[in-house]
Input
Amino acid sequence: MQIARIGQAMMSVALVLFALETYHSPSLAGIATFCGIFPGLLVSPVAGALLDRHGRTRLVMLDYFVALASLSLIGVLGLMGLLPAWLLMIIAAIASLTTPLSGTGLRSAFPLIVPSHLWERVNALDSLGYVLATVVGPPIAAGLVALSGGSTALIIVGLTFGVSAMVIRGTPDPSTVVRVTKPLLTESWEGLLYTWRNPTLRGLGFSISILNVINGTLTIVVPLIILQRLHLGETAIGLTFAVQGMAGVISAIAFGRFDSRDRERLMLGLPMVLSGVAVAILLVRSNLPILALVMAATGFLNGPLDVALFTLRQRRTPTAWTGRAFAVSMSFNYLGLPVGSAVAGIVATYSIEAAIMFGVLACFVSGALVALTVPAVE
Output
């Protein structure tokens, strides 16, 4: 899982830099990011039903092999000069269809194998895995693009998923009792309905998806500020995201020791609002030290938010629904990232400040939605 997460962190940066290098268009960079995420979110109910039926390891491996094949194809076609923008979007969209299998498959296994009184700690480790990937992945990806170009970088990123598949091969699935009595699409639909009718999962879906707009925005805005305004190289982009990751590491370790019961809404809402305040500083000044400070602040604030989010979702989801409900919930939560990237890419073509304001507003709205839509008790 950790190797794959590093690959995912590399891919998000490498794909943006590849699009900027090849097509010289922030709009295309944003749309490519959108295509690489959004189609997978649409099929997440089916992915969740498959995970509940057939276990996790084999389906996680399937996604890793699809990522290896698609990134290698993009890289090879890019090196040959045979990759028009529309074909990039199609390959990215097809590859995204299996991504819920690995993301949901691994995370939904945690409540099955870890005692409930340790959920905060295992969720802190889960969050730590993401932020460690943010520390390691973007600098490597940016360095690879700077040294060998975007096409070669994407091929190397694809190989990390192949390594992940080989490492996880043979790992036993958590033992669960699954009774298959209905067609796959029926169970997928039931998972979608269950998530929508669960007040906690529905409230988290709205608030976290809006919050993730800022992450999608930063994915586009940070490279543009560094490349176009500060006239620095790709390596500076990776190091800036690494600063965010290092702050997240410290935060995840610190907040993983806290009992989040009855504090979840505060641990969600306050970091959301403060993230908006931090990013708004870029509207006043956007030099390299300020950019690093803003990224560090958003990384640190992500620690308590992740612990509260993961633990609250586990507490309020029955074991029998973990695959389906987690797949739909996680995809719902993630929806804002591709939307944020696509909108920010288009808006930033005309005004980087307007794109930043778009992300800041999303942070404030998400904080309000936590208070209004997430129940205090089950």
Notes: The mean pLDDT is 88. The longest helix spans residues 199-229.
